[in-house]
Amino acid sequence: MAKSYDHLFKLLLIGDSGVGKTCLIVRFSEDSFNNTYISTIGIDFKIRTTEIQGKKIKLQVWDTAGQERFKTITTAYYRGAMGIILVYDITDERSFENIQNWMKSIKENAAAGVERMLLGNKCDIEIKRKVPKDRGEKLAKEHNIRFFETSAKSSQNVDEAFNTLASDILMKITKRSAPGAKEVDLRSSTKTKNSNKCSLV
Ligand SMILES: Nc1nc2c(ncn2[C@@H]2O[C@H](COP(=O)(O)OP(=O)(O)OP(=O)(O)O)[C@@H](O)[C@H]2O)c(=O)[nH]1
Q: N or C, where is the chain less crowded by C-beta within 10 Å?
């Protein structure tokens, strides 16, 4: 049977418990949101197919449990990921500080050269904000990765974040398979909504 997609990309979301990893994946794959908090046990995944530069990209998005007790299980999945999304909660300073530890975990467990992205989630609750946007931007810059503030609740920047990561991975593999080929910036063609509160670097 013919394949229904051109590429399969495996993405992984990591970050402290409660930052909204599951909600971001559910928003992206099913376009819905639930206020009830059910902590992830171990690992789970959802699928969504998206189109970038005329290519059908099947995204297999892995959701990891943020709780420390699942670390051995979850880190075992890092190596198979082509892209890793680090998530913190803009209303929770601790979750932002812990990003350094999650970065370390990537270094220890993921493939070298894995595409990374930083998300500051829950930007719909500005009133409870503890982490200013420029701190997220600065951290992302230090690691030379992209940054978005997102809201799984309002859906702000959720599609943009996933599509941008997929686009970056596509660009990387296209460049690799066509050495010497002229570099094309696929990012410029991805659909980007403008946002005033939650923005991208
Ligand atoms: N206001 C608001 N609440 C959110 C948002 N994203 C998630 N939440 C809420 O935050 C809580 C935790 O969300 P989850 O997606 O389960 O968090 P998680 O990171 O997957 O947590 P673990 O599975 O324990 O690692 C839930 O009550 C969600 O409804 C958001 O963008 N805005």
A: N
* Sheet order of strands, 115-121 included: 43-52, 55-64, 7-14, 83-89, 115-121, 146-149
Residues with CB under 6 A from ligand 1: 17-23, 34-35, 37, 39-40, 65-67, 121-122, 124-125, 151-153
DSSP code string of 8-36: EEEEEEE-STTSSHHHHHHHHHHS----S
Which CATH superfamily does the domain covering 7-200 fall into? P-loop containing nucleotide triphosphate hydrolases (3.40.50.300)
Centroid of ligand 1 to alpha carbon of 175 (angstroms): 36
Ligand 1 atom closest to the Cα of residue 26 is 15
pLDDT per residue over 3-48, tens digit each? 799 999 999 999 999 999 999 999 999 999 999 999 999 899 999 9
ipTM: 0.99
Could you tell me the two tokens for 51?
Answer: 């189109």
- Name which residue sits closest to atom 14 of ligand 1, judged by CA: 20
Burial of 199: CB neighbours in 10 Å, binned 0-12, 13-18, 19+: middle
